[in-house]
Description:
Bound molecules: adenosine-5'-triphosphate, magnesium ion
Helix content: 55-70%
CATH architecture of the largest domain: Up-down Bundle
Number of domains: 2
Strand content: 5-15%
Amino acid sequence: MRSLSRILALASQLWPLYVAVVTGAVLNAATGLGVPFVIKAATDEVVAALTGTGGSVTTVVWLAVGLLGLDIAHTVIGNLGGYAGDLMAVRLRSILSRRYFEKLLRLPQDYFDNQLTGTIISRLQRSITETTTFLNSFANNFLPLLITVGAALVIIASYSPWLALLLVAIYPVFTWLTMLTSRRWQVLEGQKNTAFDIAGGRFAEVVGQIRVVKSFGSQQRELDHFTGQYDTTVAITRVQSAFWHRMDVLRGIALNVIFFGIYVIIFTTTVQGAFTIGVMVLLIQLVTMARAPVTMMSYLVDSAQRAITGSTDYLAVMDEVEEPSPPADAGGSVPGQAAVPAQATVPAQAAVRAQAGQPLLEFRQASFGYGTGEDVLREVSFTVARGERVALVGESGGGKTTLTSLLLGLYPLRAGTLLVDGRDIADLPVESLRSLVGIVFQDPSLFSGTIRENLAYGRPDAGEAEIIDAARRAHAHGFIIGLPGGYDAEIGERGVKLSGGQKQRIAIARALLKDAPILVLDEATSSLDSKAERLVQEGLDELMSDRTTLIIAHRLATIAGVDRIVTLADGRVDEIGTPAELATTGGIYAELLALQGSRAGRKSLRRFEIVG
Ligand SMILES: Nc1ncnc2c1ncn2[C@@H]1O[C@H](COP(=O)(O)OP(=O)(O)OP(=O)(O)O)[C@@H](O)[C@H]1O
Ligand SMILES: [Mg+2]
């Protein structure tokens, strides 16, 4: 229950709706409770007429008119309350979903490395749907009912305290019996949700990579795995539901016995003359009203439990530790760039270039490993001067991409420091850091939408001329205008409608348009043929001439023109030097050079994955 009240508190701006819902429920209950009294009065009037002790047709008709008025008011108020309840639920849903997304966007990379996308989505769907559905039906149905019952009990007590006492006893007994089942029920529900999440996670992954699935003919295997998870949920539900309904039979019988006592009291007291017929009719109606929530209790508890499980899942994500980001005023911002959003790279660039003298990038004894695994990078130290072009060379899996992730502040270092412009990145707000880096990822990672939207992803305000200029420099303009729709062509999910080389060129243009002071190219041209690569390279060379660049490429021709090369072996820096220097030392670079230079050498090429 605490989780549900935390959820309500999260959306405290909805208080006018909360008030409307509660007011509606109170008025709804009041109009509902009026009805038994009018019927009591009518019954007494009818009995009086029949026994010749008074009573008139006019009064009875007026009472019927009163009933009509109450019923109409009940219907109208019920629907107004329902409207407020629906609105509250949908706004709550929107607020909770937004907060969830906002939270996810602030979680560290490490969280996403360990979750399946589909699982994240299915958890969001379930936790929010179940929480808001419960609150919606609570507002629209349960709350008016609970108020009605409370008032009915008070009225019954004024006629017969014993009756009220018997009725009141039902609720704790019934709730206790329900709670007995609830713990086991929740454990089973949790197991079912895990199975749903696994199935949902895999489902999204398979649909996202359907080509691979088709090519390996693994549809049946994927289907079996998926069905297996659902079979698990069926098996669990069998146990869960049988248990629940067994307990419900017990609860139902206990309830029936108590009501037997209640009716015996009402009937015998009336026969003994202590209640008029009207009072008997009134009490029977009130008792029936009080019974409704008891029979609804199973449903209420069931959906409340789902909501509690859902909101607990939701809050678990909300309580995840966020990406560390020191406040902008903690002296962590880049000079002249306090709390600048990611797009505002121009002042950042100016600020960075203004401070000559120290290296722009400096890895100092930096060590890092993923999760609890062993170190991938060990005491890495090297610097990149302003405007310098440095290439990273090393075997596949050697940690080159990892270095770029550290530069983006996606993971914290285990030891050592990484300085950007003389500042430890641990003290820099991640947004400022990332605004300094334009990156072309090893996997181009485009979004669905148009070419134009993808190009302008880092600078949504970029003008047409700038977009075309970036595309030209990445040698992408030619193929873009050839596409139906040109810059407005839709490229499909993750850019599936483009070739590998086309995607890379869009990714390069996207990074160029961001125009950040540090450019990182991770195998940026690996999918291009030699001719296209040369053309893209020319565009890049021009761009790199006044920009600090970190280049990763397996194809050595791509990095022949860099200022310095850093080679990595076993996660450590092996050598640092100019291409000419390293060509003669006999180290990794020289070895690669020899291998790539000779066809014969390729046969013995095991350690290095070379696309040449
Ligand atoms: N998110 C991750 N979680 C755990 N381990 C990872 C993760 N990403 C990479 N690794 C591991 O870290 C090591 C370095 O990977 P990295 O991607 O940095 O290599 P690389 O030098 O870029 O290789 P390549 O040339 O093939 O792109 C590898 O052993 C890899 O298995
Ligand atoms: Mg890599």
